[in-house]
Write a structure and sequence with these properties.
Layout (H helix, E strand, L loop, with lengths): L2 E2 L1 H12 L8 E5 L9 E5 L7 E5 L2 E5 L1 H6 L3 E7 L5 E7 L2
Amino acid sequence: MLTLTDNATNIVRNIATQSPQPDTAGLRITSDGSAEAPFAVTAADEAQPGDQVVSNEGANVYLDGPTADLLDDKVLDARVDNEGRIEFALGQQG
C-alpha cells in the first residue's frame, strides 16, 4: 500500500484544511492504468466509490483502482518550491 512521508502528510493535511469538508478532504491520485502515463493529482472533498483510501495522521489520499495497483509499493513525498508550488514525487518503499 502507498505510504506517505512526513512532508507529504503535512502538505496533504494543509490542503484538506482549505476544503469545506476538512475531515474527509485530501488528495485524489488517478491514472489510466499505464505505468508510463503521468498521474493526475487533484484536491478532493472525499473518496469516490471504489477508491482505495490511504490515511496517515489525518492526511487522506484517495487512489482509483488502477492507480492503487501501480502505487502499491511506493512512497509519496512532497515539497513546496521557492515559488510556493507543491511538487509531489514517488519513490520505492524500503
